[in-house]
Amino acid sequence: MSITYLEAIREAQAKALADDPRVFIYGQDVGNFGGAFKATKGLAKQFPGRVLDSPISEDAMTGLAIGAAIEGMRPIVEMQFADFSTVAFNQIVNQAGTMFWRTNVTCPVVVRLPCGGTAGSGPFHSQMMEAIYAHYPGLIVLTPATVEDAYSMLLEAVALDDPVIFCEHKFLYYHLKAEKLPTEALPVGKARIAREGRDLTIVTYSAMLHESLAAAAELRNEGWEVEVVDLRSVKPLDTDTVMASVARTGRLLCVGEAWPWGGVTAEVITRVVSEGFDLLDAPPQRLNAKDTPVPYHPNLWSAHRPTARTIASAARKTLQS
Amino acid sequence: MVQSVAEAATNNEVLPSPEIHLRAYRFMLLARVLDDKFASLYRAGKIMGGVFLGRGQEALSAAIGVSLREGDIFAPLIRDLAGRLAFNEPILDSVRTYLGSIEGPMRGRDGNIHRGRPKEGQLAMISHLGAMISVVNGGLFARRMRGIKGTVGVACCGDGATSTGAFHEAINQAAVEKLPLVMVVADNQYAYSTPTNRQFACRSLVDRAVGYGLRGDEVDGTNLSDCLRVVGAAVDRARAGEGPQLVVAHLLRLCGHGEHDDAGYIDANLKNSELGRDCLKLAEKWIQQQGWTDTATLAQWRSEAIQKVEEAVATVQREAGPDPFEKNYWSALSNPKFVEGNE
Ligand SMILES: Cc1ncc(C[n+]2csc(CCOP(=O)(O)OP(=O)(O)O)c2C)c(N)n1
Ligand SMILES: [Mg+2]
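Above: the input record for the complex with magnesium ion. Below: its predicted structure, written as tokens.
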């Protein structure tokens, strides 16, 4: 038996619905149709009245989830694409993100964002939104890179009392497979060493984990041992695991699929430089997507985002500096 | 259509009782006295930030508050002090929030009209206009899922807020879900300085009801009896399962947008029109004409209101503000294990 990243997300939702009567799913086409990507396939039938189609109203979808959370429910909102969550931006950052701090009432909402690029998706169906949401106080931002994490982190997201932005990567939906679902997992907020090494630390998350692992394999052939840290959760950010790795390797490359200005890679480098400058043997580097909208044509798309090849060449520079 | 009490009587509608008039009137009066106190504290430099009054809108607001029951949900607009008081908001909550007391529901973290007790159905508005309506929907939606019956939600907004995307999304959502939402629009002719002819192009905002597939009613927002009747009936219909309701009240803001604003832009013709009448004075006159009260009682109610307000302000002025060195101020997440960077 094997299970995909997408199936893991479906299974996690099925388990959440089965285990907790407070959980419901609300989003466009999530009902009988099972969602644009089929992440809720069969759930409406299995859990009548708890997996509901919404109008195309991202603001009101999120507002409704927040109101239900105040009443003690545990809603999961599916955005059809992460890109459309900009329409819900106000509810997410100003309503959900401020609720606990302002009123002492928790807001356990999960907003699922199918994010990231796939060839041919273009500027408005490919965006990475984690940095935007991580910038605002009051939100937890998760970026699972593996089938196991997609499953366990989504379940943990539903159980958490704070609002969670769950960034699931569309490129991983079908490609990534695991033998079975995990029975135990690292908690949210802990990064994972995805590959051990001693020469360079690559810090990454989401789909870029796999490009980075491929780059590390390529560099192995050249004699380099590259350590790869999968952040798993970008907020909170596990600075300790990153620092410990940099302490071992003395070199740092941060890789993200999001745009370069600010963001997760900049945050990681800032923390390492300000808290662990002495650990570094070379200037830390980062590699992001290019600072343009995400292009449509596959030739352009694959040049826009980091790939194993561009990561390996950035890594070589860091290794040789 | 705006319908008068006399017309309603011939339509066999149940008219609001003398008791409910008097109850509502007393909340109007208390709100006016409290608002006046906030205005003078503001002028004395005792309040940080803005002060937003409900002067001229108390009849509508109190009518909402007295139509609600414990267990309902209310998302007020910024001018709804009367309605909040009638929906059980303690006087101390508003005073503490305006004065930044640590004892208040917002603990100095948020101020003025941005206050509430969400678990008690008193939603704590964010500033963004239109954003609270779908949150009311969510509360009602959750109750339906949990099999809780007989509660309603009222969301209140101004003419200006009806132009937001959030308003449209939420009203349509309530209609699709047939939620017991009563959307009250206080059309007070201006959104800050912008007159309604720069805000919308329909004849009346109530005309939008048909487009959303919900019932719409208009009411003279200066007339307490009419407000009690129309708002009360809308709340009853929502409670009875007849789906969302739109009530559009016509009135005039009898103050600046906030106390910083002299409102010199308000058209003198409007001030002198029927819209510009003071609902508090009209209500006072009406309940006396009906023989439900007399001048001595009115004077006594006023002095009681003043006393309550003065006591609350005196209490709160002795209370401490928030202490920035208290560590838990600086965590926006409820889970302490996730709090970072607060050294
Ligand atoms: C989305 C948004 N845009 C702008 C503002 C700034 N603002 C606050 S109140 C207001 C006018 C509101 O007018 P209206 O809805 O008619 O209510 P009224 O003040 O007349 O009661 C404006 C523009 C805001 N709070 N939210
Ligand atoms: Mg207005």
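Notes for the reader.
Residues 5-338 of chain B form a domain with the Rossmann fold fold (CATH 3.40.50.970).
The radius of gyration of chain B is 20 Å.
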